[in-house]
Amino acid sequence: MRLVVVGASGRMGRTLVRAIAEAPDLALAGAVEPADSPHLGADAGTLAGLPPLGVTLSDDPLPLFAGAEGVVDFTVPAASVRFAALAAQARIVHVIGTTGFSEAEQAGIEAASRHAAVVKSGNMSLGVNLLAALVKRVAATLDESFDIEVLEMHHNRKVDAPSGTALLLGEAAAAGRGVTLAENGVFARHGITGARKPGDIGFATLRGGTVVGEHSVIFAGPAERIEFAHKAEDRMIFARGALAAARWARGRKPGLYSMTDVLGLSDF
């Protein structure tokens, strides 16, 4: 399967290039960077710490998309929306690991998914998506006497908060409770906040150092507490998950899918 990596000079981009190079059933069909990138013209393999792959970084994605079967995208929301439109035009798979979308940007992704298979997730790792399925099941089992809190920590260069993974876990908890995160999520506490409201789903965000990603979901009940945690130790887990999503989506009808679909966890 021929894949294009967008944002190829970034940390996740370089990791994706390495993961594709390791996979015998995949090939790097192109590597894309913005027009102002200092890495344009560089070999994607060399940037990723590999021998040269003969694929140079370009700022012109459309011809690359036309010669590929999929694009893997861990960039920024505005860029992902543009890539989604181009992938839809080329009728190729679009795997999106970007987080931090506004409602308008999400609408752009949904529009593109009417013409191509799009797999979009706040986290591409197997472990996190299994965790989300467990959180949904536990939230459905326990009543509101158990308070739900989501705690996350990432490196000091992450620009969005809460993380896409934290939101994914919060959405799973809300779905289990039969409510919406928009109505029940509490994303900031400061000053005299008053007592915690039953049914709230709270979030706490930590930033520092080089932490790849750590997430905990806490169910705090009367005199007992249940905690679920996932700790990412290497970005390669996200790359491998994204490539599994690309394989799964190949040949699928147009639509907006998630890692829940890829992993067969929809009915868990």
Task: Provide a descriptive summary of the structure in words.
It is a single chain. The protein is an alpha/beta fold. Helix content is 37%, strand content 24%. The strands form two sheets. Strands 3-2-1-4-5-6-12 form a seven-stranded parallel beta sheet, with helices on both faces. Strands 8-9-7-10-11 form a five-stranded mixed beta sheet. β5, α5 and β6 form a beta-alpha-beta unit. α1 crosses α9, α4 packs parallel to α5 and α6 runs parallel beside α7. The two termini are 30 Å apart.
Average per-residue pLDDT, rounded, comes to 96
Uncertain stretches of 5 or more adjacent residues: none
| Overall strand count | 12
N-to-C terminal Cα separation, in Å? 30 Å
- Portion in strands: 15-25%
Query: Outline, from the CA principal axes?
Result: elongated
H/I helix tally: 10
Radius of gyration: 19 Å
Provide the succession of SSEs: EHEHEHEHEHEHEHHEEEEHEH
Please state the structural category.
alpha/beta
Query: Going across the major beta sheet, what is the strand order?
Result: 3-2-1-4-5-6-12
Largest sheet: 7 strands, parallel
- Helical fraction equals 25-40%
